[in-house]
Amino acid sequence: MKIFCVGRNYIEHAKELKNEIPEEPVIFIKPKSALLQSNTPFYYPEFSNELNYEVELVLRISKNGKYIQPHHANKYYNAITAGIDFTARDVQNELKKKGLPWEKAKAWDNSTVIGSWIDLTPELLKKPVQFSLSLNGETVQKGNSKEMIFSFDKIIAHISQYFSLNIGDLVFTGTPAGVGECVVGDVLKGFVEDKEMFEVEVK
Ligand code: ZN
Hints:
Fumarylacetoacetate hydrolase, domain 2, seven-stranded mixed beta sheet, 5 helices
């Protein structure tokens, strides 16, 4: 199982981190060990002093494929949830400055949260999929799939030009504006439409 992530897929988020608007999807991969298992606590990483949340819509791949055309891409995923691509922002900023890969800032063990799955029906995809994140009860991030620079189908098609997609792979589709810091004791809840998908406490 692979975890694909898209960086800078929302204009306002690219701007808030002073990144350029990308001309093609920015893709990185996390290992399976980055996924926080249910009933496992989420720990503040000991190597960071600036832990950021990034809520994202996450797709689950339902069919193996390579070189997928955008107009066929919707046959390759069948479920959606919200997740957090936790980021050690201080570590990432250091790595970015040096032009180095940023896995240490994003893909450490148990760094990545996903919620429960919703079947992706054609009805659900007819309108933009809404999602949000609350921090200690207050909404801090809000977005919808229509605001993405690269749509679900374009992301899937692009990834598949380089990597084979396999059943069970996950695709994090990027975070909207509003990323911010969290500290030990914070409680984060992710929503798709108005449905709560996950709750995680920073330990
Ligand atoms: Zn992200």
